[in-house]
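BIG2 domain-containing protein, Blautia obeum. Tokens?
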Amino acid sequence: MANKNLLKKIAPVILSATVAMTGMPSAAFAAEFSDEDMILNENAEDEESDVEITDEDAAADNTDTDVTVEDAEEEDAETVDEEENTEAEDAFGTEADAGAFSAEDEADAVSGDFVYGTANIPYADFFYGEMNDVAQNATMQLDAADPVTAVGYRDEGMYDAVTSCTNNKSKRYDTSYYTENTENGSVTLEGIKAVNIAVPASLYNDAKKAIEEGKSCSNQLLKIAGSLENVSETAPASGEYKILNGDGTLTAMTTETKELNVESSITASSPWGNYQVSVEFGNNNPDQPTTANMMGVIFETSDGEKYGMEHSQNLWLRTGEIAFAVKDGFVEPHKNTIDSKRSAGLEGKTITKITYLVKDGADIVIPTNLLCKYKLADGQGITGPEEKVVYTNNTFTPTKVQLTYNVPEGSSYKLTSVEYGGQVLSEGSYNDYTYDDSTKVLSVYGGVFAKTGVGTYTLTFTDSSAAPYEDITVPIVLSADDTKVTFAIQNNKLVKVDPNGSTTYEVKDYIKNITAIKVDGQALGGRKANISEIAKSVFNESTGAVNFDAKVNNAAVFAKGDGGSYEIELTASGFNTVTGTVTQDSGEYKYVYAGLTWDQFWASEGVYEATNTSASEDKDRRGESDMGGFDAVTRATANHGLHRGSFQTMATVYDVNGKSYELAGWKDKTTMILTDGNTVSCSKGKINGADVAEYTVTGLKYIPVKVKTADYDAFKKAFKVVENGEKLFGGYAENNLSAYEETAEVNANTNGLKTATKTADGFTFSARANGTTSGLKGEALKTADGITTKMKPGSGSYGEFLRVDLTGNYGGLGGAMQAVKWTYYGDDDTYSNALQSYGTKFAADNWMHKFHGIQLGLTDSVRCKLPADTDGTGYWEVTVYGLGYSDYTFRFQATDENIAKSAGDADSTPLKNIIAEAKALKEADYTPDSWDTLVNELEECEDMLANIANQTQYGIEEQIGHLREAIDSLVKAEFKLNQTSATLYSGAAVTLSATTNLTGDITWKSSDAKVATVDAKGTVTAVNAGRATITAALGKVSATFTVTVKNPSITAKADSSVIYTKSKTTTKINVAKDGVTGNATFRSSNKKVATVSANGIVKAKKAGKVNITVQVGNHKQVVKITVKKPTMKLTKASAKLKKGKKVTIKVKAAPVSKVTFKSSNKKVATVSSKGVVKAKKKGTATITVKCNGITKKFKVTVK
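Tokens:
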């Protein structure tokens, strides 16, 4: 018995030597070689003389043995202990006795024949060796064409790379290597990773030399040889490798196979391909390939053809499922297009074997009998009726459903099953259904014993022809009669609306048939979810009541908490679609928005002097009264803050007459919306025509509050409230700030919710509660991101002693900002022990600029006094509260540089200069928005100049920078019309349009409405002949359009006003239209004198005069025509000539026409066509002259 362990080790040596001696291809030789058939001389001293292979042995090998490399390894591992300890002798003895086959000698033998390594191999090269009979060839062939390319394996859709948008899944195939697209995140699987490669040593050396010499190669040889890694003279431990050939091809993998007899199936209806194969490996089958070792799959069909399957497109993470396409353009649910080119040939064939190519293990072979039924063409199939079919639920009168066939010729489709409600129905007149093949009518029976009802039926048709097409699945919906019963959401329940009192259907029937549930627009469950079970968890089957504790995938369906409202949309097979609102309401509390004053808001927030509402007579550096407690913020100017104050605060404007206006928002730049819904104009220091005296900011208008239902009526009388479902709005959109309009939806989980508690004196409010919902319908709680914190040097420009700006993506938080809390930790850099917290007020402390960011400050005031022995330097934490936002908190360290210092001797000259520069500009030259920015910054500069003694140099420089930016950002006003002039005919119109960067309505005016008018849309209408100027104006700019108006007319003129009864008998009247459209008509006043055709051709009849009337539309003109008889006369009637002399006959004719001349005796005198008479001999001749039908005689006497 030969030592199999040693045999395995020397096999490559023997194989190589035999190839060299016989010239036999090594692959063919290897197939004939078996360690069972080696005959060794017991006394041999070298391997060449010890080995003899006979034809008889080879034959025995073919019939009796099937030992693979991996089989030998396994047997080797199992018997090694026995071999090492036995004293039995065989041809080689034990390893200890075989000095000629020591480890060192073994290594030398391998190095002389093969070099081993690993390389990433593209799919095309990998599958080529597996699917074709590739013989070994060790001769380097640099000029040989690439066989893999020649057979089309590299073509797109064959065995090329696979690009997938499901990048995370695609990365989970451990046997493939990939590249990532950084732009769109897609992953491209390139091929098989770290494939074991064996290269004949001579070929390897030749290839290395060729690479070093920079030689080119027409195939993959140098590329693969040059990419080898982990190069070794030792074969892989697994015994698995492909051999690299001299033409760059790779052989099939040297490995073993293992056959598994497991169930498999195929379907021609899958979302993942035209076909899907399922292999039932069972649970925890150790032979099932995994994503860690599956290199590919090969299908072999009954005709011997092979088809490779690639990762991601065909092979899934669930390795027992394989999908493929045979038609172009198949797109699976992840939006990946499945290539069909490499598998198109499978259509109509039977798959008889599936081989899983397993890395470092036995390939798994599964015998199958899977028919890939032919696919139907687009548009082919069987369909149900388009119209609604009402289920009758009658035992004797079935519901009839007409089917329509459009199937291939030669097919023979039969109805094989009908399913409803998860059950297969029984066929027969006294069962559930019958089907008439001739009429294609399905009859569904009802009644007590039938398993039928309203909903979706699934009909399966199977083709029984010899070359069958795919099964056809037809969904049929039988509906309830919605004139008798419908369903609706009412009072947090799904209810039946049954005007006739029928009890045929109940809520449970609707719930059973629900196919989709949306809550606030989001569908419950995933693609594979059991919607019926989800429906039963959301609704009580008996009562229809909503279960507000329902969960899907362990997530709460209704997560807003008490007071939360949800939009429900239900789709049910056979029943009406239901939409409605449900509200999670315990009834104990009402959830609303309320307007709170500054002290009411801050009272329970743990800030300094929270309830102190005292004012202060002191002025800050801007001369403003911001140094009090939580009293109202008062402003004396109209331009400062009315737009910004409308976002989140309660603001009231007072005019000089004492009238007040409560601001809610802005309709446009100059139109203020009041809290009562009315609008007033407000611009440039005037409101509703009166001068503005001042405005106050008293608090915040939209604070989420919960109050006991029993106290709600009293609460509404004390506070302005917005109930759920009502509108919240505010702000004015400019640059980075956007106005908003939302719908209130406050619930127990709304962020910032305060609890209102009724007391003998009114109501008190709790501290804000952190929540997870926004309080805005349809809006998730937002998180501010992309914001940059910017510490400011201590300028005190706006009266503050400490300031931080938030820039970057600040616009959303700026428009939502309600209040800001500052907490001072002094020297505690761990932020553990707060020294004091401070509340703030909008306009007095907080501000948002339309492009400079959110500006947060602390004012030295009644509401903000630093603790004893501190100066404001150290560690601070700031939290911004915003409507619909999570609390935004940041921390910073303030240094001495950040604390505002006492005012010094600031230089006012630069401030005066830039103020003068700004005032020299003309408002009409710029757009209103950019001009308003300038005006606001100019006002800030003038306020600062008026209080120059209280300013710091840094503060002045900062404000100068703001004004300079406003000047540089001015946008030139553009306003021009699409036309500057035109000529119109009366009654015609043209519409002018303006190109402008201005906003507002254009006004139009005509300089002469008797010539041309213009309407509000710029349409100019010509009235009468003349010239007018149209002026378009927008704000302080204008443009003009000059219009010349002509009255429409026609001009008619004949080619000739005189015609004759003979010769020139016609003339044409030509008509020129000026501003007139239509065809001309012609009419003769005397047809006996002349007629006129439809084309204006006048034809003479007899002498006389006639008027031809030409008309186009309402425009007429008369053309006078004279008809004359023709005339003709000779200037003299005779002439005497001497022989040889000439004379010309002169003719006068009207009209001028052709004249003919004829001599009565050409021997005496001749005459030319031009009337030239020539004397020939003595005698007399008569020349006959004819013209216009008149004949005259001319006598010639020759002497």
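Confidence is low (pLDDT under 50) at residues 1-111.
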